[in-house]
Amino acid sequence: MATEGRLQAGATFARALAQHGLAPLLRERVTTLQINVGRLCNLACHHCHVEAGPRRTEVMPARVAERLIELLDANPSIRSVDVTGGAPEMNPSFRYLVMEARRRGRAVIDRCNLTVLLDPGYEDLPEFFAAHGVHVIASLPCYTAENVDRQRGRGVFLGSVEALRRLNALGYGRPSSPLRLDLVYNPLGASLPPPQSTLETKYREELGRLFGIEFHELLTITNMPIKRFARLLDRTGQRRAYMSLLVHHFNPKTVPGLMCRSLVSVGWDGSLYDCDFNQMLQMPLGGAAGIRTLWDLSSFDDLVGERIATGRHCFGCAAGAGSSCSGALL
Questions:
Q1: Residue-level pLDDT at 11
Q2: How far apart are CA 166 and CA 160, in angstroms?
Q3: Is residue 96 in a domain?
Q4: 6, 220, 224, 256: which could form a disulfide with 196 (CB 3.0–4.6 Å)?
Q5: What is the three-class DSSP state of 147?
């Protein structure tokens, strides 16, 4: 249950933890390596905290990708490699990262916007995913064309449907298939996501009835009040109200499951952060004075016990049922 009214609207995240008798966030053993390979994308969505788009030039070079594979060899505790962007598939090292991680027995997640699978030069990606057992987590912020196109651009919904059909044809999203396909919902505006299970049922009914599309799970993710979405809040005069909403719905029961405890976020240039959101805000790992990189450590176990850098945007992960890259926490 959320704790509406117990915190002042201007509360810091650290104060919220203390007020509920919770210790500062500390790192546990790293089991997930989340790799942001850059900000190049074929879309420019309104809610994008990465501010990705077709004109972005930040792209992970090969030497960073090679260092990541070296560290995978040295860190057997890492079970999952979570590749994001931008459109991660547009990075020249994307397939190298996928193949080398899978060769080492790691699970691989691709954060896919779906429409990239239709672009010239990327049409074979569904087959590539299937051949390497990639877990596809695909962004589809609504089951209606009007809402998706309003958030992501004209024609994106129908393109997403076509891409989902191609994935389904290969076995992705089928109930008995090992080829995992999950969808991601982001609210259209300054609100918390509805209950994940309820919305999943609606998605399943509508996408199945209208298009015959199947998927495994719907993940609900709260829009973070940073970067492009923060500017949208400013333009519409909603920033203060949205932050108040997040703070007043702080839920201490979400804290044990916050993804930053066991995840390290890697930037396109090899820099290290506590999460992808901190990366976009250039908040150094652990709140230290300077940015550390992949070349500053030999083992991710060196990070165990370190304090996690927090800010007011962290209320986005701990409001209501909670939010993480794996969906609702509760």
A1: 85
A2: 10
A3: yes
A4: 220
A5: helix
Q: CB neighbours of 193 closer than 8 A, spacing ≥ 6?
A: 185, 186, 187, 199, 220, 221, 222, 320, 321, 323, 328
Statement: residue 255 has pLDDT above 80: yes
Least confident among 163-177, 253-267, 283-297? 283-297
Contact 250, 318 (CB under 8 A): yes
Residue with tokens 């997403």: 160
- What is the CB neighbour count within 10 angstroms for residue 147? 13
Q: Residue 325: inside a domain, yes or no?
A: no
5, part of any domain: no
- The 10 Å Cβ neighbour count of residue 305 is 10
| Tokens representing residue 34 in the block | 């989340």
Give the number of C-alpha atoms closer than 13 A to the C-alpha of residue 122, restricted to the C-beta side: 19
| Domain CATH for 79 | 3.20.20.70
Hey, how many other C-beta atoms are within 10 angstroms of the C-beta on 285?
26
Looking at residues 301-329, what average pLDDT do you find?
96
